[in-house]
Specification:
Mn(2+) binds at residues 112, 135, 137, 139, 216, 218. Catalyzes the formation of putrescine from agmatine. This is Agmatinase. Helices cover 32% and strands 18% of the residues. By secondary structure, the chain is an alpha/beta fold. The longest helix has 17 residues, at 84-100.
Length: 292
């Protein structure tokens, strides 16, 4: 499919029909080839789009309306089923094309490994890149059962690419002992259990930097987001994640791209997970991207 043409299925609410006239491109990465527990996040982007149709276009958090920005829903990258290496290459190539066209990429996963090729593309364009990582899991493994391409490895790979001191993780409450030891010794910034308050303290230090933000929906407690592949008890509320997104918006931080991953709708018949995810995407659109 061509990504500068309108998506033929459901699109995110109020999506602009023109790629050329849009500042932001929403795209899906329907990949769950390497998940370690429950698959199904490849269906996340489609369900988030469907859930968005129930949203109000106005946000009382941002005091903005979706009509104030122009964004194009490009649909899902047609990733080859079961082939993580080729899928990663395709994602990187696609982000290269968006950055060349001077678009703000806003991705929907899919498993968290999809963030790795995105950051490889961003690293080519930005020398001073910093990453805000909001997640239940450290994602700092070098491999999972002998496989280096795993959704438990992207943040470790990103640390190696841009320098661990440029990675800021929040909400972390799960991982191997070795992952927490790596975080402590490498110079990366890991904040366990909480998100909004430690994030607010860090944001001033990122002023003037180009920042990419990746959010794993499982940072939420399973009571708020049961529809994810590796749910972890003890998480934050939807209210706290909205507070964190608003804090980034209000800080004036130069966010250059973002993604939200690991929505697996099959495990949530109530649909509260894709409904919440669609609201987070709306707030990211209104708070982190440029006006028309």
């Amino acid at each position: 499919m061509k990504f500068d043409e309108a998506y033929s299925g459901n699109v995110f609410i109020l999506s602009n029909p023109s790629f050329e006239d849009s500042n932001v491109v929403i795209y899906g990465m329907p990949m769950d080839w390497t998940v370690s527990f429950r698959p199904g996040s490849r269906f996340g982007p489609g369900r988030i789009r469907e859930a968005s149709l129930g949203l109000e276009e106005y946000s009382p958090y941002a005091d903005r309306h979706l009509e104030e920005i122009r964004y194009f829903d490009a649909g899902d990258i047609p990733l080859p089923f079961g082939n993580p290496k080729r899928s990663i290459d395709m994602i990187e190539e696609y982000i290269d094309s968006l950055l060349e066209a001077d678009k703000f990429p806003l991705g929907m996963g899919g498993e968290h490994l999809v963030t790795w090729p995105i950051l490889k593309a961003f690293h080519k364009k930005y020398d001073d890149l910093a990453v805000i990582h909001i997640d239940a899991h450290a994602d700092l493994r070098e491999e999972y059962e002998g496989e280096p391409l795993s959704h438990s490895t992207p943040v470790r790979k990103i640390c190696g690419l841009i320098g661990a001191e440029n990675v800021y993780s929040f909400g972390i409450r799960s991982g191997m002992r070795e992952e927490f030891q790596f975080a402590k010794e490498s110079g990366m910034h890991m904040h366990k259990f909480e998100v909004a308050e430690p994030l607010k303290k860090v944001l001033p230090s990122l002023e003037g930097r180009n920042v990419y933000v990746t959010i794993d929906i499982d940072v939420l407690d399973p009571a708020h987001a049961p529809g994810t592949g590796t749910a972890e008890a003890g998480g934050i509320t939807s209210k706290e994640l909205l507070e964190a997104i608003s804090a980034i918006s209000n800080s004036g931080l130069n966010v250059v791209g973002a993604d939200l991953v690991e929505v697996a709708p099959a495990y949530d018949p109530s649909e509260q997970t894709p409904i919440a995810a669609s609201k987070f995407i709306r707030e990211m659109l209104l708070g982190w991207t440029h006006k028309k």
